[in-house]
Every structure is written in C-alpha cells, then in structure tokens.
Design a protein that fits this description.
The chain is an alpha/beta fold and about 290 residues long. It has helices at about 25, 50-60, 80-95, 120-140, 160-170, 180-190, 195-200, 230-245, 260-285; strands at about 15, 35-40, 65, 100, 105, 110-115, 145, 175-180, 205-210, 215, 220, 250. It has one domain (about 15-285): Alpha-Beta Barrel (TIM Barrel), CATH 3.20.20.150. It has nine helices and twelve strands. The strands form three sheets. Strands 1-2-3-4-7-8-9-12 form an eight-stranded parallel barrel. Strands 5-6 form a two-stranded antiparallel sheet. It has a two-stranded antiparallel sheet with strand order 10-11.
C-alpha cells in the first residue's frame, strides 16, 4: 500500500540524494534500498563514459527526481534557455518524475557559487513568478520551488512565509518543503518553524527534504547536508505529516558520508515516520 499523501505525488516513499560518491556503494544489493533517488542535473548532464553508464543503470532501477542548482530564478540576468533545453532533454531521457529548483539566485554576470536570498518584496514576487511561469511553459510541466536557507534578509517588506506563499500562488507552481531549512531559518531569524510549515499550502507540496546542518553557534546554524538529521528536524517532519498527510520524503547528504548501512538507516527512519502516521490515521478511521 502506498504511504504517500496522494496518488498524484510524483514519487512515493523514502528517497536519497544520489551523489557520485554513492555510485559504488549503492551499486551493490542493499537491504531496504531507497524508494527513489534525486540528482542535481547540472552534475550529470554532460557526463560521459563509465560514470554515465553507471548512472543510466540507476535510472533503470529507481524512480528519479531532479533538483536544480543553477537556474537562478531570482537573478538579474535573463533565464538561460540553452541550459533549460539541456534540462528538458535530461528530464525526458531518464523519465524524471519532477523537476525542482531553489527560490533564490546564484548568478550576476557569472556564477556566484551560492544560493543568495531574494528580497521579500512584492516586486520580487512578481519578478520571480513570471520567470517560474516562463520555465514551466518552456519545459511543458509544473516545477517545484524550494524555500532556501538564508542568513540575511536584505530589503525585506514581507515575512518569509508571506513571500513563499505569494510566489506559489502567482506562479502556480509546486513546493519542495525542506524541514531542515525551516529549522535552520527559525533559529537564525527567530521565528517558530511549526508556524512556518503550517502556513504553507499542503496541496502544492511535491515532496519533502530532510538533512543535517552545522551548529556554528547557539543562534547560528549553517545548512550543510554534511551530518545526521537531528531530533528537532525529525519532529518537524512528523508535524508536516500530521498537518498534510504522509508525504514522499528524501534524505540529503552531500559529504562526510557514513557507512552505507548508517546512511540507509536514516532513510529507513523516514519510512518509520511515514508508517507511524499511516497506522495512526488507519486507527482513527476504524474507530
């Protein structure tokens, strides 16, 4: 039985971000493998040779999602339709279930190599929403946007929640909910992450991210994807499930990889959270 919120969800169950360092370990048979994998298409589009063949073997075994890094939706330069054409071909070649990008910008006459915050203003809502609509028209499908971790809010005239919701509505796009980003931002900017998550439109959520982060200080967290998911973030995932229903959820890990068994145990913890909510819901129905 599917545990996802909706049969219309692009993927099901508990997933894992596929990094090049994981190609070898995940090539071997493993107990409880991920239900789906996610890749940043920029890291794979132009790869050839043996790595491409190995990647293609994975696309035959697993459903895939794509999470972009360099579209720069909020950037000042025109959208790169040459890059988007490569993305579109990649999505179609490998039957990728959905494409998501960051609600940020990362270029201005060159790549900035970071995800910079878009000012939380009405002008920015209109600007980025129009660019998202252009991307969706070009690709011929709805995309999802991820609310990003940020460390400054220059020129903000709206809250993060108001900004994200306004973009989702005006662009008519999907949402990639990142509960670790919600936690990190709540510490760095002093708001309640539960209220932020509850404010989001559940019907637009395509899937969810969980990840670890770095504690720079008691009031400064850095989103790194380089450590285990902590208990407060797992609790926010439980909250999201209780609010919106069981959602497809993916573990992000970019470096400091533990053993394959430890990594997949974290993926399995996602399943346990999904199953707990599913059983609780079934119990309420039967009573």
């Amino acid at each position: 039985m599917s545990l996802s919120q909706s049969e219309n969800a692009p993927v099901q169950g508990a997933g894992l971000g596929l990094r090049r360092a994981l190609l070898g370990p995940l090539s071997e048979p493993v107990p409880n493998p991920p239900d789906f994998l996610e890749v940043a298409p920029e890291n794979w589009i132009r790869m050839g040779g043996r790595r491409r063949r190995r990647f293609e073997e994975f696309t035959e075994r697993f459903p895939f999602t794509a999470h972009g890094l360099s579209l720069s939706l909020g950037g000042p330069e025109p959208l790169d339709f040459g890059h988007l054409a490569e993305i579109r071909e990649f999505l179609r070649r490998y039957n990728v279930r959905c494409y998501t990008e960051h609600l940020s910008y990362c270029s201005d006459h060159g790549h900035l190599y970071d995800l910079m915050p878009i000012p939380f203003t009405e002008e920015a809502v209109h600007y980025v929403s129009e660019r998202i609509r252009q991307v969706q028209d070009f690709l011929g499908e709805r995309i999802g946007i991820e609310h990003v971790s940020y460390y400054a809010a220059p020129g903000a005239r709206m809250s993060e929640s108001e900004f994200v919701n306004a973009v989702l509505e005006e662009a008519d796009c999907g949402l990639l909910l990142d509960v670790n980003n919600a936690y990190v931002n709540s510490i760095n900017h002093g708001y309640d992450p539960r209220e932020f998550i509850a404010s989001l439109p559940g019907e637009r959520i395509m899937y969810v991210h969980v990840a670890g982060h770095h504690d720079e200080d008691v009031d400064l967290k850095i989103d790194t994807h380089g450590s285990e998911v902590i208990d407060p973030v797992w609790s926010l995932l439980d909250l999201a499930y209780s609010r919106f229903g069981v959602l497809p959820t993916l573990l992000e890990r970019d470096f400091n990889f533990p053993s394959t068994g430890e990594l997949l145990a974290e993926v399995d913890r996602i399943r346990q959270a999904q199953e707990a909510v599913a059983h609780e819901t079934a119990g309420r129905v039967w009573r």
